[in-house]
């Protein structure tokens, strides 16, 4: 049976924590996903892709800063749009070439997507979205003192800059996303969580933030009434006691189990927290829906239970 499947690629899955984030590294990581996406297309499913941009947008801000005396720096919403464009380009071309190489003539279209947020969102005073490279604690403290940026520890991987990550309220181009999917195209939308915008008397206006792509992906997935939502990241499965000697991987979670683990603090903000929350929201709203959190390499194995964590309403 044809299903509508939404895939969310993590920014950290496109630039791994051990990599510098060169063009070749990013494209090679995207290339690794093509066979899995193609498999879903071969099975006749409609595929909508979204992706993160945390490492990439943080690197772009660093670049901005390094040459600010010569080239005017751009605000964060513009940097998000830059990474939405460059990663959308990488996915469109890499996946398009792969599909063509196996005889599938389906266009892969990336859509510039704006996402409405509230300027009153509490995240503007409590930044939680990790962006850019990892630093040691000493380096992070130095940067915090000299530049006033906020840094936090990211899941045992090092210290990273954090920026506001408001709740996505509405996908401005949602009708276009549906129409493009209906043409049979593979659609890439709300990249980097979407470009954050607020409604004002004069119309939409950019907001300096980075929306979590898992939360925006949930809005997309619910908006197109998807059957399945796959959150693709670096780890193979969700864990409890992550990174501790008592760590345990989870092959499945019901919403009530996920809520209990959430309340016990197993899913930190800015990393696994939003993935689990997005999965819960997706499966809670319509019976029968399934969300999967799985590594990029094992995307298809999630459907057979060989890999990943499946989240269901009951
Ligand atoms: N309970 C947990 N189970 C699995 N991974 C976790 C958990 N808590 C934190 N993590 C970390 O969260 C990461 C996923 O978040 P992140 O890197 O922000 O995702 P993305 O791939 O979307 O960029 C994992 O790679 C892992 O390092
Ligand atoms: N925007 C966003 O959620 O990026 P990551 O997937 O890199 O965290």
Automatic annotation (TrEMBL):
Write one Gene Ontology MF term: carbamate kinase activity
Pfam (any one): AA_kinase
Q: Which UniProt keywords apply?
A: Arginine metabolism, Kinase, Transferase
What does the record list as GO biological process?
A: L-arginine deiminase pathway
Catalytic activity annotation: hydrogencarbonate + NH4(+) + ATP = carbamoyl phosphate + ADP + H2O + H(+)
Give a yes or no for keyword Kinase in this entry. Answer: yes
Which InterPro entries does the record match to this protein? AceGlu_kinase-like_sf, Asp/Glu/Uridylate_kinase, Carb_kinase
Q: Give GO cellular component annotations, separated by semicolons.
A: cytosol
Q: Does the keyword Amino-acid biosynthesis apply?
A: no
Q: Where is the Aspartate/glutamate/uridylate kinase domain?
A: 4-294
Could you tell me which pathway this protein works in?
Metabolic intermediate metabolism; carbamoyl phosphate degradation; CO(2) and NH(3) from carbamoyl phosphate: step 1/1
Sequence similarity? Belongs to the carbamate kinase family.
Q: What is this protein called?
A: Carbamate kinase
